[in-house]
Design a protein that fits this description.
The protein is built from 11 helices and 9 strands. The chain is α/β, with parallel strands linked by helices and 333 residues long. The protein has one domain (3-183, 260-331): Rossmann fold. The chain has a 9-stranded mixed beta sheet, sandwiched between helices. Helix 4 links the parallel strand 4 (74-78) and strand 5. Helix 4 runs parallel beside helix 11 (318-327). The radius of gyration is 19 Å and the shape is globular. The two termini are 34 Å apart. GO terms for molecular function: monoacylglycerol lipase activity; short-chain carboxylesterase activity. It holds the Pfam family Abhydrolase_1.
Length: 333
């Protein structure tokens, strides 16, 4: 792919806040939550849990907020790994789109949010079929005038893979937006192993907590406590890959949700991908390997970290501005 096909877009961090780790960590800063909940009060007040029935008895949890107009477009938002419908970026983006006039569904992947009890089998990142089925079911049930799919990090990876399968699954997406999508999982693990150690500790803490919650709910199925004693994400991934039994090696597992190269060649929906050159978790250069197609537009910033893009000292995120700009066309007749 030519570098000319990558569009640079202007994001400016507040003075003293351009560091990639600062941006990435500020985005998850707990002090943001109270302010965001106040801003999103009306949206949250009007939200209700919806359990989506997929094939083979699989159930996924979602939270639906209807717009005032029955003709409103619908936005489906997918969080990142070990995030949920309550992740700060989800609340912020959902609130932005809601006030634009969208109906909102914040979809939880299996074993995320408060959904561990819904399915006996553990989550892994190749469980694409159920997410495709959930999006298809949502469209079938709500029959929106237009449908936006938006994902962050691993959720961005899922959103792009769903979009790649949309035509085959009979899903009529109007637009897809992926923010800092996971591109090459094997490379991401290396980044986590060699980058700022706090990221590894953060994800391992949340992942182990999730697995232990699953064990408590299904004690007859899981006894993974010995495996959970490791502090190595690679070791734990290898052990769980062996447990799943669907993959010979950890690289086979990673290859299943790697989206580099021509893996997204079936996309025929207008799709926007936003990445930062200083993302400490995802190597932006994978964006150059994606297929050259008029349907995929790639935007690259110099700074922003991983799903950070904090734009001021009130800790508001520029991601909301970007998604708003990208979504306005769905509100036009």
């Amino acid at each position: 792919m030519s570098t000319n096909s990558i569009q640079t877009t202007q994001y400016k961090a507040p003075f003293g806040c351009s560091n990639e780790h600062f941006q990435s960590l500020l985005a998850t800063f707990k002090l943001r939550r109270n302010n965001l909940k106040k801003q999103a009060h009306t949206m949250l007040l009007n939200s209700e849990e919806r359990i989506i029935e997929c094939e083979d008895g699989i159930k996924l949890q979602s939270f639906y907020t209807p717009a005032a107009s029955s003709e409103a477009p619908l936005a489906i938002l997918i969080h990142g790994w070990e995030g949920s419908h309550e992740s700060l970026y989800q609340l912020s983006t959902a609130n932005t789109l809601y006030h634009l006039g969208f109906s909102i569904i914040r979809l939880n992947l299996r074993d995320h949010g408060t959904s561990h009890h819904l399915n006996a089998e553990l989550f892994h990142s190749n469980r694409l079929d159920e997410v495709v089925q959930a999006v298809a079911r949502i469209e079938q049930d709500f029959k929106p005038s237009k449908l936006l799919l938006c994902g962050f990090s691993l959720g961005g990876n899922f959103a792009l893979r769903v979009t790649n399968r949309a035509k085959q699954a009979g899903i009529s997406l109007t637009k897809t937006i992926a923010v800092c999508p996971a591109l090459d999982p094997a490379d991401i693990l290396i980044k986590l192993e060699t980058s700022f150690s706090l990221y590894m500790k953060y994800f391992m803490h949340k992942w182990k907590r999730s697995i232990r919650k699953k064990q408590e709910l299904f004690p007859d199925l899981y006894d993974l406590e010995e495996d959970l004693q490791t502090d190595s994400m690679r070791d734990l991934t290898e052990k769980l890959v062996q447990y799943y039994g669907d993959y010979q090696t950890i690289n086979d597992y990673f290859d299943g949700y790697n989206i580099c190269g021509d893996r997204l060649a079936q996309i025929d929906t207008p799709t926007t991908i936003l990445m930062s050159k200083d993302d400490p978790i995802i190597d932006y250069q994978g964006i150059y390997t994606l297929p050259e197609t008029p349907y995929i537009k790639r935007y690259l910033t110099e700074h922003g970290g991983h799903c950070g893009y904090i734009k001021n000292y009130k800790l508001d995120s520029w991601i909301d501005d970007f998604i708003k700009e990208q979504s306005l066309s769905l509100l036009q007749d």
